[in-house]
Amino acid sequence: MKLVSFTRAGRSSYGVVEGTDVVDIGSVLGAVCPDLKTLLADEARLARAREAARTAERYALASIALLPPIPNPSKIFCIGHNYHEHREEMGRPKTAFPAVFTRFADSQLAHEQDAWVPAVSREMDFEGEMAVVIGRGGRRIALEQALAHVAGYACYNDMSIRDWQKHTTQFTPGKNFPRTGAFGPWLVTSDEVPDPQALQLTTRLNGQVMQQASTAQMIFPVAELIQYCSAFTPLSPGDVIVSGTPGGVGVRRDPQIFMKAGDRVEVEIGTLGTLLNRIAAEPA
Q1: What is the Cβ-side half-sphere exposure of residue 242, based on CA atoms within 13 angstroms?
Q2: How many helices (H) does the chain have, and how many strands (E)?
Q3: What φ, ψ does residue 50 adopt, rounded to 5°?
Q4: Left if phi > 0, otherwise alpha if psi is -120 to 50, otherwise beta: which for 273?
Q5: What order of strands is seen across the sheet that includes strand 208-214?
Q6: Across the strands, what pairs with 21?
Q7: How do strand 273-281 and strand 114-117 relate by DSSP bridges?
Q8: For the chain, which domains are there?
Q9: Which of 55, 73, 78, 197 has its CA 20 to 30 A from that of 217?
């Protein structure tokens, strides 16, 4: 299934994408599952969503406004330097463990929403990545069981404000400006993604390919990221792990390429779809 969160006529809901329509299962299950995160927490209700889709009201996709698939995750973990080419272009040494930092939920935006170049910087960089959404929570999850805890996968653009990212050795300021974490357009359930390490990832800026890699090239694959993150904190349904970007980022090009108002950026990943955002100046 392709699951989305959305608004329509001032009401928030969630549903299943079928062709050019979205089936509003939130209107059927909303009393017990007010949002998609809550639905993912209950495997029985997630199964009911398939049945609800047969009878629920449907709308044209063009008539709704998408939200990030999980608008309200409790935790967003981002993984740094998880492809060898990117690690090398950034001058980072090999490490035995993943580099983990956090992104705030209110820094996210949805498919076809404008991302904002911050008023205090002009160094906004693209980072196409695959997002992993937890369905079954847990602590100290075993490697061989890790993928069973995944609800689904989505495209993500973990945009970086490079000068703020470089203020210190900590990434947090440069990764949490408003409207810099693009997520979507939908969540593809894990039953439709047999192998998350066999997907092609492409980032395009104004139609030009900037990044291209296979998720097979990750240094720490999805299962290892789940194992590692769950070792230091419990994972909960709806938590997001943004699994890292491949080489080709703008800051390491000669000349450097940073996104500016009027640009169009796309992240396409195999069967997960294409996430599209336009770039705008942050409102005054």
Answers
A1: 30
A2: 6, 19
A3: -65, -40
A4: left
A5: 114-117, 273-281, 264-269, 200-205, 208-214
A6: 18, 60
A7: parallel
A8: 2-67 (no CATH), 76-281 (3.90.850.10)
A9: 73
The residues near 47 (Cβ < 8 Å, ≥ 6 apart) are none
For residue 48, name the pLDDT band (cuts at 50, 70, 90): confident
Token look-up 């400006």 returns 177
Q: Which residues contact 90 (CB under 8 A, 6 or more apart)?
A: 81, 249, 252
Q: For residues 127 and 257, give the distance between their C-alpha atoms in angstroms, rounded to a whole number.
A: 12
Average pLDDT score, the chain: 95
Say which DSSP state 198 is in.
S
Q: Which helix (H) or strand (E) holds 153?
A: strand 150-158
* Phi, psi for 163 (deg, rounded to 5): -65, -40
Mean pLDDT in residue range 114-143:
98
Using one digit for the tens of pLDDT, what is the confidence trace for 162-185? 999 999 888 899 999 999 999 999
Distance CA 41, CA 58 (A): 24
| Residue 112 falls in which region: left (phi positive, over 0), alpha (psi -120 to 50) or beta | left
- Distance between CA atoms of residues 14 and 16, nearest Å: 7
